[in-house]
Design a protein that fits this description.
- The structure is a homodimer.
- In chain A, 27% of the residues lie in helices and 21% in strands.
- Chain A is an alpha+beta fold.
- The first copy, chain A, is globular and about 55 Å long.
């Protein structure tokens, strides 16, 4: 059983997911070759993954058979396990609990070589609806407080499989980063009685130097204080704290801007590794006037070294205004 | 001039250190070959670095000539610059200031191939005294609030030069991580009227399952909630919030345990990349009853991907109790 442990000073939770029988040198980072060979996410290999929990596009045929467009399965090597009680426990001044949670893989396309930003908007829409569907479903489990949806693309960003996929982790604790955002946004709201993200969007639209692209419902910006070159945030223009409450029309607009933003990034730096993370309200939360759901896309370009670890702040060699200019021009340049 | 920018929600400061004339693809991570070739940190090449700000061991001879044991120079490619005013400025809801600070390199030995943990204790002592010396000196500059001392060892941990060195950055803001620690420790102190780190040391000595090694004045533990396999903290056993106030006797004991701890790590995983960071009180602080200076050593083993970025928490495949057992046995095993 994995364990959740809390740092007593920072309040940060970490997961101890013991891999048994390993020697110290087994923890060395290895360059895995993920190209070629057997792919457990391809159609025909459905029996090599745990049983699917959600599938879109298979009109006929049995569960765990081909014919699907998007397929969600539990992670075969989960960081947290779904069965059991939390059993919160103190150990002197330390706190821990059982590593209860869900860890799922969203297989974004049946085609091994499809790149996420190249999927049709209708197909990308299904991926975003699958996120929604799973968040709603996992939100019915009282043990969980948050569902973290993320994607690792490229080996440098942590992807261990080539076949296009994203992941989600349902957690019994609120991630520290989300908690900090909620606190920061609430402080601003108490002072101004306005959502800070709504204010950011207003200022970005007015200044128009960090806007990458927009449509009627969403906007992509390079944030004022980005951690890495080409970091992008995608936000709904109208206030909403709950990703899972977006309508189909909204999800379609999100799919469009998401693909466009990633295509712009790819046009600047072909095949760049990146992570994206959904930031949304906690499970079973009331609608929050101070919080605004959004996606953060962080390319993996500069390495994170001692300075960043120690200080929690980052050195970025590219101003977001310049990054936005590159991203704006990028598609025009190649077309 | 670099810029310091604050994330309006999180309060996190980042440095925009523009590198002029770069194209987007120039930001791609490259595998630099740092072996062989010209080394600007070797004796005889003193004229290729900025002028030294501190030197130990050169009894005769001019400044910036060979004959030194430890040499401190400004970083040739500094993330922050020393000359200028802070000029704090708002831009709508955003905050920024000039990227004023110091960025220095501590060259730990004249010998290109010396590994840090293999230096004699007397030599390592000089390195730790150089940290002290520079913190005190930079603390006289009212513009600075913190000096962050850190080391990147190995390419995967961000080292761009092979010659053994550490770095320091003097900052006009308090790093977010240190601020969080100060806040967490103060909350505990208000409740218990005891330093949380002192309590941690007491509990670790009693439980004796995460102690790696100790001497009369210092202790090395694997923390209860470590981010990575083999993460280690080195703390003074007696309460002290100020690294720069340690006596020579204390620094000597620190040099001893530091070398021993790194040798134990190296015996477990030969040549493993790592970062260490000094966590100490802010500049010109009064002695703090709730904070305890320490070093955190974080091996670079697992890659940080979307989950960790998004959540601010970590999946660690090795329990610290097992890591401590390996580290305890390691030197005995190879001797």
């Amino acid at each position: 059983m994995p364990e959740l442990r809390k740092d007593p000073v920072l309040g940060r939770w970490i997961i101890i997911a013991k891999e048994r029988g390993k020697r110290p040198t087994d923890f060395i980072l290895e360059e895995e070759d993920t190209t070629g060979g057997f792919c457990p996410l391809c159609p025909g290999n459905e029996n090599t993954t745990p049983h699917e929990v959600l599938v879109y596009g298979r009109e006929y045929g049995e569960a765990n058979s081909p014919g699907w467009k998007v397929r969600v399965v539990p992670n075969k090597y989960p960081a947290l396990v779904i069965e059991g009680e939390l059993n919160r426990e103190g150990q002197g001044l330390y706190d821990k609990m059982n590593g209860i949670g869900a860890h799922e893989v969203i297989i974004e396309s049946p085609n091994h070589n499809d790149a996420f930003p190249e999927l049709s908007n209708e197909h990308t829409f299904l991926v975003f609806r699958a996120f929604q569907h799973r968040i709603k479903d996992l939100g019915c489990d009282d043990r969980f407080r948050y569902v973290l949806v993320f994607k690792n693309f490229g080996k440098a960003a942590g992807a261990s499989l080539e076949h296009s996929h994203s992941q989600l982790v349902a957690l019994p604790v609120l991630p520290r980063k989300i908690e900090s955002e909620l606190t920061g946004a609430l402080t601003y709201y108490k002072f101004k009685e306005r959502c800070i993200y709504c204010d950011i969007i207003r200022q970005e639209l007015k200044q128009d130097v960090r806007v990458v692209c927009k449509n009627e419902l969403f906007i992509t910006i390079t944030p004022f204080a980005p951690r890495t070159p080409f970091e992008m945030w995608i936000l709904p223009i109208n206030h909403s704290s709950a990703y899972h409450e977006q309508s189909d029309e909204q999800l379609m607009a999100l799919a469009e801007i998401f693909s466009e933003s990633l295509c712009r990034l790819d046009a600047c730096i072909p095949n760049v590794p990146y992570n994206f993370v959904l930031h949304t309200e906690p499970l079973r939360s009331e609608s929050l006037p101070h919080y605004h759901f959004h996606f953060e896309i962080v390319p993996k370009l500069t390495s994170i070294a001692g300075f960043e670890w120690g200080s929690g702040f980052y050195i970025n060699p590219l101003a977001p205004e310049e990054a936005a200019a590159y991203l704006r021009e990028s598609l025009e340049r190649i077309s």
